[in-house]
Each structure stands twice: as C-alpha cells, then as structure tokens.
Amino acid sequence: MAELTEEQRKTLARCDRFGAIEGPDLETCPGIHFCPDWDLLAVCIDSPEADGCNCGRLKSFRAPAKGGTNG
C-alpha cells in the first residue's frame, strides 16, 4: 500500500468535508469515490482504507493478481 501524499490527504479531507469530488481530484487521488464500504468516506487507491474497499470502484486501479493461469 502506498502512503498518501500531503496533497492527497488534503484532497480526501476536502471531499469528505464538502461531499463533492471535482475533476482535478481524480488525478490527485486515482479511483477516488465515496465508498459504501466505509460509510461513504472518500477513498482512493492510496488510502489506508483501500484494502477494505470491496465495492469494486478500485478494481481497475489494482495490480493483477500474481500466479494466474493463461488458459
């Protein structure tokens, strides 16, 4: 899990406070969304809460599982 940058931390806090995600937030915090698994907390792929996010919004941001089959 990556650590949040200060800019990401501020973006997530602002989104939580005001309940809105704006265009630039998507670049700063890839996968940002209000996660139903976290009572609509703003979560992105680098958030500590990302490990507990099972709603599917971060699926495309996660690395593929190692050891998969090719066939």
What is the secondary structure topology, with strand pairs?
Blueprint: H1 6-18, H2 23-28, E1 33-35, E2 41-43
Antiparallel strand pairs: 1-2
Describe what you observe in this structure.
The protein is α+β, with helices and mostly antiparallel strands. It has one domain. It is 27% helix and 8% strand. The chain is built from 2 helices and 2 strands, in the order H-H-E-E. The chain has a two-stranded antiparallel ribbon. The longest helix has 13 residues. It is globular, with a radius of gyration of 13 Å.
Question: Characteristics of this structure?
Answer:
71 residues; alpha+beta; two-stranded antiparallel ribbon; 2 helices; globular
Rounded average pLDDT = 90
> SSE string, helix = H, strand = E?
HHEE
In total, the number of domains comes to 1
How large a portion of the residues is in β-strands, by DSSP E? 5-15%
Task: Look at the helices and sheets and give the structural class.
Answer: alpha+beta
Tally of separate helices? 2
Residue windows where pLDDT falls under 50 for at least 5 positions: none
Tell me how many strands there are.
Answer: 2
Radius of gyration: 13 Å
Strand order of the largest sheet: 1-2
